[in-house]
Amino acid sequence: QVQLVESGGGLVQPGGSLRLSCTASVSIFRIYDMGWYRQAPGKQRELVATITRGGTTNYADSVKGRFTISRDNAKNTGYLQMDSLKPEDTAVYYCNADLAPIAMMTPPNYWGQGTQVTVSS
Fold first, then answer.
1. Which residue, 7, 38, 55, 77, shows the most beta carbons closer than 10 Å to its own?
2. Residue 92: CB atoms within 10 Å
3. Which of 69, 76, 97 is nearest to 26 (CA)?
4. How far is CA 68 from CA 40, 86, 102, in A?
């Protein structure tokens, strides 16, 4: 029943910005640890950034200093702010999150549907 829904992808020029959003479709489900992944054609899916429910973040070296992962627990929503975008950032971006309506030792993991980000002049 619950889904992880992404939005915010699109076409942007190099140096531009986009903000991706990821939210649980059912309000009673809380997002626990979450992250953003991306996959370009012919490449393996790679981890971009992660954030715990408490706000601890980690970034891939390729995006460090340009991307910011954040969350609003009251809205059950995670974000990826992407600044200074480069053509090599072009990929399908996927949200990944642990979701549960109650506290669990190991919340089930979900994937968003993916959203296309294209950086081109």
1. 38
2. 18
3. 76
4. 20, 15, 28
**Stretch 63-74: mean pLDDT:** 96
Alpha-carbon distance of 63 to 99, in angstroms, equals: 26
Beta carbons of 83 and 66 less than 8 angstroms apart = yes
Tracing tokens 């829904």 back to the chain, one arrives at 5
Residue 24, pLDDT > 90, answer yes
Q: What is the pLDDT of residue 103?
A: 83
Please check whether residue 36 is in contact with residue 94, taking contact to mean a CB–CB distance below 8 angstroms.
yes
Average pLDDT over residues 59-66: 98
What one-character DSSP code corresponds to residue 103?
-
19 φ, ψ to 5°? -125, 120
CA 83, distance to chain mean position in Å, is 14
Residue 104: which pLDDT band, with cuts at 50, 70 and 90?
confident
Cβ count within 10 A of residue 64: 10
Residue 29, classed as helix, strand or coil, is coil
Report pLDDT for 1.
Answer: 86
